[in-house]
Amino acid sequence: MPEVPHDKERLKEVELYPFQKGMEAGVDAIMTAHVTFPKIDGTKAVSQKTGEEIAIPATLSYKVLTELMREEMGYEGVITTDAMNMKAIADHFGPVDAAIRAVKAGTDIVLMPVGLEEVASGLLEAVKSGEISEERVEASVRRILTLKVKRGVIKEENPLSVEDKIANAVKVVGSAEHKQIEKEAAEKSITMVKNDAGLPLKLKSNEKIVVVGNTFISSLGDAIKKRHENTTVISSSSYKLTEAQLELIKNASAVVVGTYTFNVSGRSPSSAQMAMVNQIIELADTPVIGVGIRNPYDIMAYPEIDAYLTQYGFRPASFEAAAGALFGEFAPTGKLPITIPDYNGGVLYEFGHGLTY
Fold first, then answer.
1. d(Cα 136, Cα 149) in Å, to the nearest integer?
2. Distance CA 300, CA 345 (A)
3. 58: DSSP letter
4. Residue 119's Cα: distance from chain center in Å?
5. Sequence-ordered strand ranges (E) for the chain
6. 320 with 183: CB under 8 angstroms?
7. Could you tell me which SUPFAM superfamilies the record lists for this protein (predicted)?
């Protein structure tokens, strides 16, 4: 579990400074991190995974969420946890235990717990038993409802019945209008970082595209196949390609590799996924196009790739947008929201970089 070793004085001067300014400006909500602050809270718990004592992360810390954030820093808005199914929580705490600890610590929203119904029942039992007071629950409800009124999610006076509200939500959420906005947002986000492959793709029907990857690769492959029927998808959970698969790649007219990472080790050139990508780049005689499915930093691990798009998301609209950009249905206009470094301390691509057709 990550540790922030600094004392409170240093934290307030550096790490907590932007949060303090945000609070003073009236920020609506703040998400907790599953990191430890040993100089703030030295409380220990026993890990269900190792049986050893571990430090309590900020997400479950009363001293951090209530004493520091609420009482010292004066925060009155909503507190939400980061995803409770992340390893830093899920490996060491049972889902119900973690949720109860988070609520007692001061969070208002328990985000993405493992086993929603079990957690909801566990929290209810904790209230019935008095482990969590009704006053504590009411404080969170008040903050959440206040925010919903402030942002127009609910009106202070709404004559509709609960049943009518639900029916209206079913009609509105995911409507054609919403889907169109989602499509436009996904298309505008697509960032073409590199294009030495002559994108957009203009292939004849007898020319084959091979799409390679693992996580969400079928979604990317399906979106490409809609636009070019002669497409083969290779999904490799081990990132080890067979001789037959390598032969397909070698004979393809274009190769699209989808990579999915969520941490530093995943995008290391020595990771199995990135080693496979670099093997494909070395093998293929035709352009190899990379798609960063979730993380724009992926190109750090395979800078020699011919072209690279990043889509920032793994929902259907993002895959459709990436495929549409590959085939020139629209010109990419996205810009990098970060600087992408290389592994030698230099810069691969600057903040704000983005190519188009």
1. 20
2. 11
3. G
4. 23
5. 29-31, 44-46, 53-55, 78-80, 191-195, 209-213, 231-235, 254-259, 288-292, 307-310, 340-341, 347-349
6. yes
7. (Trans)glycosidases (SSF51445), Beta-D-glucan exohydrolase, C-terminal domain (SSF52279)
- Domains, in order of start, for the chain: 8-150 (3.20.20.300), 181-349 (3.40.50.1700)
> What is the DSSP annotation of 72-130?
IS---SEEE-S-TTSHHHHTTS-HHHHHHHHHHHT-SB--S-SSHHHHHHHHHHHHHHT
How many Cα atoms are found within 13 Å in the side-chain-facing hemisphere of 112?
10
∠ CA 178-184-189, rounded to 5°: 125
Reading the chain (357 residues) residue by residue, the pLDDT tens digits are: 889 999 999 999 999 999 999 999 999 999 999 999 999 999 999 999 899 999 999 999 999 999 999 999 999 999 999 999 998 999 999 999 999 999 999 999 999 999 999 999 999 999 999 999 999 999 999 999 999 999 988 876 767 888 998 898 999 999 999 999 999 999 999 999 999 989 999 999 999 999 999 999 999 999 999 999 999 999 999 999 999 999 999 999 999 999 999 888 888 999 999 999 999 999 999 999 999 999 999 999 999 999 999 999 999 999 999 999 999 999 999 999 999 999 888 999 999 999 999
Q: Which two tokens stand for residue 50?
A: 């190792």
Dihedral (Cα; 137, 143, 144, 146), 10-degree rounding: 140
Q: How many CB atoms lie within 10 A of CB 42?
A: 11
Q: Contact at 8 Å (CB) between 336 and 323?
A: no
Q: Are 259 and 356 in contact (CB under 8 A)?
A: no
The pTM of the whole model exceeds 0.85: no
Between CA 58 and CA 63 the distance in angstroms is 8
Q: How many alpha carbons lie under 13 Å from residue 322 in its C-beta half-sphere?
A: 33
Helices 95-105, 134-150: inter-axial angle, 10-degree rounding? 80
